[in-house]
Design brief:
The complex is a heterodimer. By secondary structure, chain A is an all-alpha fold. Chain A has a domain of 204 residues. Chain A contains twelve helices and two strands. Chain A is globular, with a radius of gyration of 19 Å. Chain B folds into two domains: 147 residues, P-loop containing nucleotide triphosphate hydrolases (Rossmann fold), CATH 3.40.50.300; 55 residues, no CATH class. In chain B, the strands form three sheets. Chain B has a six-stranded mixed sheet, sandwiched between helices. A two-stranded antiparallel sheet of chain B has the order 1-2. Chains A and B meet through helix 7 and helix 8 of A and helix 2, helix 3 and helix 5 of B.
């Protein structure tokens, strides 16, 4: 790890360790950061590793959140509620994977973005899911002070899984989606690998949404807008799409940065935020924690 | 097989037997690679059938044909960009030692596969195809871009593979290479099968004319 990256990592770890000292508000910010970083890890596998542009990750989160919330309100005990959310999210993963068989690159980004927008549109009009009000009164499953370490614990688990995938043969298959002919030639169906990549992204998104539902106790359509999908993608590239470390750092860092900038007020927040993102990507095109290796998989 | 208004292949019949090296020759644009693409499933023909040991596989995707024992290489090696050679070997299920034995230097292991010298990429592609343990191997211009020494080594490899019972189809422009490895030849011209038979078909006037133009005197 280069000195610069080590300094960034240290600063971020310090922020995460110090956030709870800032009071309950910053504990909530930190928890949300961990939850969103989990969704970014899903993007790392699909987009960073597999180059399957996904501009609809918030839809996977929405299904995870709504599935979990709906089950919890119907009396399903925790953690089975998460299973319901994950099931819903994985189903969408299958649909997105099927779409990916027909579209790639920017077309796939548009298609996944469309999936997300349509899904939120449907949720907003479904009385059973609370329409625009969403679902409230989701029972808390742990004491509020537990959420912060719990969310980061799940994030650590998610990170280890993504790290394992990136070093496994499956990770090499997903990486090789960059040249589908090369996959066909070794007797591997690119279609299956694409669907698998989307299922893994969906797993992370669904888990992230499910945890969000229990933590926030309220889920509403505006929490999973298209903006969130874009924010998660930006987080991935800002942190560095070439490693799960970048995904975690980007996800946590961007959520905290957005909150730090909030006092500036609406338009200014967007401006500073946007400039910061552009500056990072110009100065460090691979992201802040991007790897500078000659090729992928030296230690795979 | 046609692309828009262009008939790339028509009425071509070709069979490949285990243990033989069958050369597919013909001028540029005669349909050789198109035929390989039809056989391996990268193109789906409008008419005609592909059989693998009696089993119709015309509707099978390329990866399934590869698994069933029909391996191929490409004119331009198809390797995942930016992947380390070491990781590529793991991807295809080979040990680095096997690649070293086939002539890849150990320094290549930590380089991206798509930036290796041409000859090394060709070695990787051949290793990748053989890692499938195929019964039939289709080589699309395997000797192009190779040094004379590498060609010689490749010819030995191809012959020994056939001796082990593999059916090998070689698309090649290098006639010296063809004469060295092949026992049977099919000649394509403008998408039609011009001639087929033993190596002697290479001497036929119509074959020479197709390659070198009418009025060429050897």
């Amino acid at each position: 790890m280069s000195g610069r990256r080590r300094a960034f990592s240290l600063a971020l770890l310090l922020i995460v360790a110090l956030l709870p000292l800032g009071g309950e508000y910053w504990v909530r910010v930190g928890t949300l950061a961990a939850i969103q970083a989990l969704a970014v890890l899903g993007l790392y596998v699909g987009v960073g590793l597999g180059r399957q542009l996904n501009a609809g990750q918030s839809a996977f989160m929405a299904l995870g959140a709504y599935g979990t919330a709906y089950a919890a309100l119907k009396g399903v005990p925790f953690p089975w509620t998460l299973g319901v959310g994950l099931g819903a999210s994985l189903l969408l993963g299958l649909v997105a994977g099927w779409v990916a068989l027909r579209a790639s690159g920017l077309y796939l980004a548009l298609a996944t973005a469309g999936l997300g927008v349509i899904l939120i549109g449907v949720v907003q009009n479904l009385p059973a899911l609370g329409a625009t009000d969403g679902l409230a009164g989701i029972p808390p499953v742990v004491a509020s002070r537990i959420w912060y370490p719990l969310a980061f614990g799940v994030l650590l688990g998610g990170f280890l899984l993504a790290w394992g995938i990136s070093r496994s043969r499956l990770g090499l298959f997903i990486y090789s989606l960059r040249n589908e002919v090369a996959l066909e030639a070794i007797g591997v169906s690119p279609l299956r690998i694409k669907v698998l990549a989307f299922l893994i992204s969906a797993f992370y998104g669904g888990l992230s949404g499910g945890i969000f539902a229990h933590w926030n106790q309220v889920v509403s359509p505006d929490a999973f807008s298209f903006d969130l999908s874009i924010l998660l993608l930006v987080a991935l590239y800002l942190g560095g799409a070439s490693s799960p470390v970048g995904a975690v750092m980007g996800g946590v860092g961007l959520t905290v940065l957005a909150e730090l900038l909030r006092p500036l007020g609406g338009a200014w927040t967007g401006l500073v935020f946007g400039l910061a993102v552009v500056a990072v990507l110009v100065l460090s095109p691979g992201g802040l924690w991007g790897k500078e290796e000659a090729c992928y998989g030296r230690r795979a | 097989m046609a692309f828009g208004g262009l008939q790339a292949l028509a009425e071509v019949d070709l069979d490949l037997a285990p243990g033989e090296v069958h050369a597919l020759v013909g001028p540029n644009g005669s349909g050789k690679t198109t035929l390989v693409n039809v056989l391996t499933g990268f193109y789906r023909p409008q008419k005609g059938e592909v059989y693998l040991e009696g089993r119709p596989i015309t509707r099978f995707p390329p990866w399934l044909r590869a698994r069933l024992g029909l391996a191929r290489t490409f004119q331009t090696p198809q390797l995942p960009p930016g992947l380390c050679t070491r990781a590529y070997l793991r991807l295809v299920g080979l040990e680095p030692q096997e690649a070293m034995k086939a002539g890849l230097p150990s320094g290549a292991l930590d380089l991206p596969v798509d930036e290796l010298p041409w000859g090394h990429r060709r070695i990787l592609e051949l290793l990748r195809a053989l890692a499938l343990k195929p019964r039939y191997l289709l080589l699309d211009e395997p000797a192009s871009g190779l040094t004379p020494l590498e060609r010689e080594r490749l010819a030995d490899t191809v012959r020994s593979l056939a001796a082990q019972g593999l059916g090998v189809l070689v698309v090649e422009h290098d006639m010296a290479f063809v004469r060295r490895v092949a026992s049977r030849v099919s000649v394509l011209n403008a998408g039609l099968l011009l001639a087929h038979g033993g190596l002697e078909v290479l001497e036929r006037p119509e074959v020479v004319a197709a390659y070198l133009g009418e009025g060429y005197v050897v």
